[in-house]
Amino acid sequence: MHPWTGTISDDEERRYEASGFGRPSGIGRHPALLIIDVQYRTVGTERRPYWEAIEEYPTACGDVGWAAVDHIRPLLAEFRRLKLPVLYPHVAPKNVDTDSGRLAEKVPAIMTVDAKGYEFVAEVAPVKGDVLLPKKHPSAFFGTPLVSHLIDLGVDTLFVTGCTTSGCVRSSVTDGFAYNFKCVVPAECVYDRSPTSHAVNLFDMNAKYADVLKTAEAIELLQGVSGGINRAAGE
């Protein structure tokens, strides 16, 4: 069973299969982990259902976000064990005088998040040596030095986690694909306030831009990575 089973019809799946979409890409020798926007503003400070979570932060996804955190933790632990790079593209606190723009017009609530909301969720927070990448737009690549960091690290594969599946995750995957990185999306490690958008975007990313896997499968792939990356040589 796939994460999109029950949302995407059997006929739709057959259409893509008949056209040759969805073949696995595998991973390269030098993967990196992206943890996108896993902040309290996207999950809430406590584990609550969606309708309760948005009473604290209207931008929260609630319990599905916390479920993703539970799956990101073992994946992150494996990256740390292997001494592989971890990068945190994230929305920085907003300056109401200068940081409005088109997204604020569409979603005014993003301008009302307090300082706690911008903190990284403690269970998967960055440590010394991780790369922090403040961003103003959905893609982790747009207007950030992400590509420069990835080239410096010799990275060839991105494991993409965080939120939202239909927004920042998808746009980061499509941009990563455009830069010719292999992309892996561990399905339980991404989340969205809309179950339908979550399922449809996982299906579409798997068909075209990424390998969408179970977290356990993603961790198993990492077992074949022999060690860390030499920052100077990329080996």
Descriptive report:
The protein is of the alpha/beta class and 235 residues long. The chain has a single domain, classed as Rossmann fold (3-Layer(aba) Sandwich). Helices cover 38% and strands 14% of the residues. It contains 9 helices and 7 strands; from the N terminus they run αβαααβαβαβαββαβα. It has helices spanning 10-18, 40-43, 50-56, 63-81, 101-106, 146-153, 165-178, 195-208, 215-222, and strands at 31-36, 86-91, 131-135, 157-163, 182-186, 190-191, 211-213. Strands 1, 2, 3, 4, 5, 6 and 7 form a 7-stranded parallel sheet that branches. β2, α5 and β3 form a beta-alpha-beta unit. The longest helix has 19 residues, at 63-81. It is globular and about 50 Å long. The model is unreliable at 227-235 (pLDDT under 50).
